[in-house]
Amino acid sequence: MFKLEPRNEQSLFFVYFSPFISVIMSIFAGAVMFMVLGENPVEAMKIIFINPLKSLFGLSELMVKATPLIIIAIGLSLGFKAGVWNIGAEGQYTIGALCSGSLALALYPISGFWVLPLVLIAGIIGGSIWAAIPALLKTKFNTHEILVSLMLTYVAILLLSVMVHGPLRDPDGFNFPESRLFHYSALLPILIEGTRAHIGTIFALIIVFGAYVIMGKHVIGYQIRVSGESSKALSFSGYSKKTIIWICFLTSGALAGIAGAIDITGPVGQLVPSIPVGYGFTGIIVAFLGRLNPVGILFSGILLALTYIGGEAAQIKMSLPSAITGVFQGMLLFFLLATDVLVNYKIKLKRFFK
Amino acid sequence: MSFNLKLNNISKAYASLMANNSISIELSEGKIHALLGENGAGKSTLVKIIYGILKADSGIMEINGIEFSPRNPSSARSNGIGMVFQHFSLFPNLSVLENIMLGIDYGITKSELNKRIKKVSAEYGLYVDSDRLLGTLSVGEKQRVEIIRCLLQDPKLIIMDEPTSVLSPQEIKSLFLILRQLASEGRSILYISHKLEEIKLLCSEATILKDGIVVSRCDPRKETVETLAKMMIGKSLVKTRKNTTRSDKKIINISNLSYVNSDSHGCSLKNISFEIRENEIFGIAGIAGNGQKELVDLLSGEISLRKSNKIIYLGKDLHNVDINERRKLGIAVIPEERMGHSAIPNFTLSENSILTGLWSDRFIKNGFIDEEECVSFAKEIIEKFDVKTLGEFKKASSLSGGNLQKFVVGRELLQKPNLLIADQPTWGVDAGSAEMIHRLLIEHSYTSSGILVVSQDIDELIKITSRIAVLSNGQLSESYNTEDVTSEILGMEMGGARNS
Amino acid sequence: MDLFEAVFHGIIIASTPLVFAAIGELVVEKSGVLNLGVEGMMIIGAVCSFVVTIETGSYVYGVIAAIISGSIAASLFGFVTQYFLSNQVASGLSLTIFGLGMAALIGQSYTGLSLTEFPELNILTLNNIPILNNILFSYDYLVYVSIFLVFAVYYFLNKSKFGLILKAVGDNHDAAYSLGYSVKRIRFFAILFGGACAGLGGCYLSLVQTPFWVENMTSGRGWIALVIVVFSVWRPLWILVGAYIFGGITIIQLHIQGIGINIESQYLSMLPYIVTIFVLVFISTNKRRLTNNSPACLNKIFNADL
To answer: Do B191 and B202 touch, CB atoms closer than 8 A?
Structure first.
């Protein structure tokens, strides 16, 4: 077997390149998988990873999908840096969508420039409240935040379903479980005419920049990093872990909430029970693949958005299940975690003969 | 039973560092052999090789002339080698009996093992209740468990790694009696320590390591502490002179401080009162785990004070004053643990330099960190306090214990505190750095400030303090003038309160 | 069968997957490893056993397939966390995401097929007391296996030397290492055992409970199994209590829906998750009991090689 020897210094090469290595390894493993399924691996890879990038439509869809992923992952990355595990972004996203959707429907058919900001803020509030529950239980009773935030995801999805089946159902919708379409003042302006690309993408870029500044230069970013390294050092520096837990949960909840609000006021345009499609979970992968670094998250968000679009293409063109997206995402994260060891350790093969 | 272990040219390297460089030692029956050296001299690596935890890169070991290369600790044990670890290899959530069972290689029922434990306990005076949960034992009792576990394998060679570092003087005495008894039965003992007095008292042979090389062999009974120190460190140390100035101005006054610990493994404090005056270094002696951590945390503000607790610092009540407000008032703290408490191993020195400065507008401007200021502060610490590093952008984990401690001490001293609280300031630090830290503390005491030093090392306290009290089982003894105190008196205090 | 018997029967059937998954995870956590991939391993076990049973027509092969596939899934986690020193939380999550995707891929052409009834075990027949007979002896053999497994784990952890070593590794891995125990290997085997158990739990869903295959059919049971481990405070026999309580909530909730009480079904479906949260809060209020029983090294990375 092999042996791991600690490096004196982190390997900068592997800090930047292990994500690329893991992408390449996933593509190879994916090719093997397609061969097993009896598909032409080169053709399949082309459909999934290349074709979406060739058309304006593909690129605009990439923006639409990358936007929520990046926003969610930025929020989660703060917590993961601090050692605060919010796994329930999917639920916070759902509640964010539900709150902003409810407000949009309540205001219908009022129009005005102030409608959209209010609707988005409702999403932020909804997401934060949902994230505040695990934060409260963690700080008050030291309850396991991973399990609580996760359980709340299931509750959130059921809550959305009950609302859309009941009070928020479109009165003229022939009993279909969906709301009416939002008024145009509650919709995000389109960025590129003829596509679904909307200005939410610009919000995402602003959030990336903001996170970059906060994490790199602001004292809160410093605190978050200290918290992730050692709780004792954190209290020695004069801040309490509880404050950090609140900051991380509220921020990641607010960002997941606005991601939900952006999605329903952007590409979806109404409330349907199938709004949560796993962005909250994929956001976890995006955050790790981007090394919990805002700029890294920008790129990994685009990559993971590609697996969604590619998965859909594979479903349509090769009649494979869209779950193929999850397989790729899981592999990516596995390979990344495995190659990450090279950042801090050298692999030394053990001698077989002495 | 005859026993002889020979080490021939044992070498072991970690990355670029030669931890052991061609070391040869011979251990024979009935002898207590000292392995002497500073932190990082290669003692631990060597004993791990003998005990089968690590493999040597080159070199041969022989037992009674037959080559011996243990694949793992259990094969070392079956060859008659036992070990008592410095950081005990015990399991806090298991019972004493289960802990002992885990170190026994032969199959045995619990009741049978219990009988043998009783027998060994009686033979050597090592009393311990085998049904108790290990986590509830005192440090001395834990060591007894380790020794019993070791003896139940009937070892021919017993390796003792720094066994006295956590014991009170009385406990050390009874340990020495046991060790002599074991040696008289014909067992060899490899005794690892950096405490020279002990080695003179106990050992008849010594091998001295420095930077992974055997620098000297001697009969410690024929050497003086000074000559041993010179062999170990490579140079003689400059004696520091104490601060003898006296002042009546009180820096801090603590009266009837009590604290109930909610952690079942922690210690509660009972009615602690003392004061520290200007120009004074006040020492608190005692074995770790008797409330030291809790006391330091209460003084630093890491644990907040109850209403009933009175701590008056320069006329101001510290109730409801948090750690950073205390820093603003001029209280600086050096906690015991370096890695992950007073410094963050994965942060650069420059990042570490502001860990205790987040309250100060020197480093934080409108919530944003002034990076240039951090870098120049880190540089200042490195230069002024002779921190050996490749630069302020190196990680704290790349520094040796001594250099990192100099960095931490320097960081706090540059804040010019009126009250400095240092918990085990030279723990795990090489002699040169320890000497420098002592000198810095004494120099600082001249600047009209008070210093509290909490330490397990009685010699250290006698060397630098003007008054000493003992913290035992959460209670503080009366304070003694350091000139009048002997290690016997302190030892009595450590044992006394514990039995009450 | 009357209503009581039906409810009782339903509870046992609903709880058995949780018993399997939770008892496996308990062993893993006792060794000091937190594997959040239970959901992923369960669904892999569910799909593999279903496919194999359909293809071979043999339930025995199906169950074996669940054990093997669950362990293989667990071995991925074992390799990255033990030998590549990866973060256990992230690795467990990726196992769950990967498992859900992989299972959907494997099972896509098997959706909609269904199986005949799983063979019941009729060891004893008390014809003269039909109620007892229905309550105690009318299940498939996996139910008895799951109960046996819990007692076996209890015996293993509390009475055997190997169990003692496993607990020691979870309590203080450095000490265990310096006494000569191979921490990584022991943990790796514990992880494999956890995978096999989760696989069994999954196969119970697809072979017995439903019995058919749909995507995401575990619907959070893997996570509830994790909660049950915390609920049990790492004591094996309490796994049974915890699992039957959670199974009970699911069944009672279904029966309330069945009786036709006028309440949206989604609210009732939320019940198990909300109860879970309350249970977690209740457990975490007793700090002392938690710290004394939880493995001290849980979720800590160990690197040293023997």
So the answer is: yes
Q: Give me B264's structure tokens.
A: 């079942």
- Closest-CA distance, C265 to chain B, in angstroms, reads 44
Q: Give the span between the Cα atoms of B422 and A123, in whole angstroms.
A: 50
Render C267-281 in DSSP notation, one character per residue: HHHHHHHHHHHHHHH
- Residue A59 counted as domain residue: no
Q: How far apart are the first and last CA of chain A?
A: 15
Neighbours of chain B (3+ CB pairs under 8 A): A, C
**CA dihedral in degrees (B142, B147, B153, B154; nearest 10)?**
-160
Span B4-233 CATH architecture: 3-Layer(aba) Sandwich (3.40)
Query: For residue A80, what are the domain limits?
Result: 69-319
Q: Name the A residues in 209-248 with CB < 8 Å from any B CB.
A: 217-220, 222-223, 225-226, 229-230, 232-233, 235-239
A25 and A73 belong to one structural domain: no
Looking at per-residue pLDDT, the higher value among B80 and A344 belongs to B80
CA distances from B158 to B34, B53, B122, B152, B189 (A): 12, 15, 19, 12, 5
A17 and A122 share a domain? no
Question: Does residue A240 belong to any structural domain of this protein?
Answer: yes
The rounded distance, in Å, linking the Cα atoms of C225 and A151 is: 12
Two tokens at B454? 């909490």
> Is residue A206 included in any domain, yes or no?
yes
Q: Contact, B172 vs B164, CB < 8 A?
A: yes
Contacts of B333 in chain A (CB under 8 A): 236
Kindly state whether residue C272 falls inside one of the protein's structural domains.
Answer: yes
**Cα A270 vs. chain centroid, distance in angstroms?**
21
User: In chain B, what residues touch C161 (CB-CB under 8 Å)?
Assistant: 101, 107
* The two three-digit tokens of residue C230, written as one number: 């915390």
Question: Which chain B residue is nearest to residue C160, measuring alpha carbons?
Answer: B109
- Shared domain check, A225 and A344: no
Chain C residues with CB-CB distance to A324 below 8 A:
101, 105
**Partner residue opposite B302 with nearest CB, options A5, A218, A235:** A235
* CATH number of the CATH domain containing C139: 1.10.3470
Q: Residue A244: inside a domain, yes or no?
A: yes
- Taking the C-alpha atoms of residue C96 and residue C101, their distance in angstroms, rounded to an integer, is 9
Domain that holds residue C247: 3-119+131-293
Whole-number mean pLDDT of chain C? 87
Sign of CA dihedral A122, A124, A125, A131: positive
C79–A338 CB contact, under 8 Å: yes
Same domain, A74 and A189: yes
* Helix, strand, coil share of chain B (percent; to 5): 35, 25, 40
Q: Could you state, in order of their start, the residue ranges of all structural domains in chain B?
A: 4-233, 250-499
Of B322, B347, B367, the CB nearest to A238: B322
Is the previous residue joined to A109 through a cis bond, with omega within 30 degrees of 0?
A: yes
Local structure of B307: helix, strand or coil? coil
Mean pLDDT by 10 residues, chain A (354 residues): 70 82 89 86 86 89 95 96 93 97 93 93 97 96 90 94 90 85 91 90 97 95 94 93 96 97 93 90 90 93 91 84 82 85 75 45
Asked if the B250-499 domain carries CATH number 3.40.50.300, the reply is yes
A300 and A330 share a domain?
A: no
- Tell me the pTM: 0.88
Inter-chain contact C292–B88, Cβ cutoff 8 Å?
A: no
Residues of B with CB below 8 A from A10's CB?
395
Contact (CB, 8 A) for C28 and C92: no
Inform me whether the pLDDT recorded for B313 exceeds 90: yes
Taking an 8 Å cut-off on Cβ atoms, the answer to whether A233 and B341 are in contact is yes
Comparison of pLDDT for B483 and C24, the residue scoring more: C24
Q: How many domains does chain A have?
A: 2
Q: Are residues A131 and A14 in the same domain?
A: no
User: Between vectors from CA B2 to CA B199 and to CA B88, what angle results, nearest 5°?
Assistant: 45
| Total number of domains constituting chain C | 1
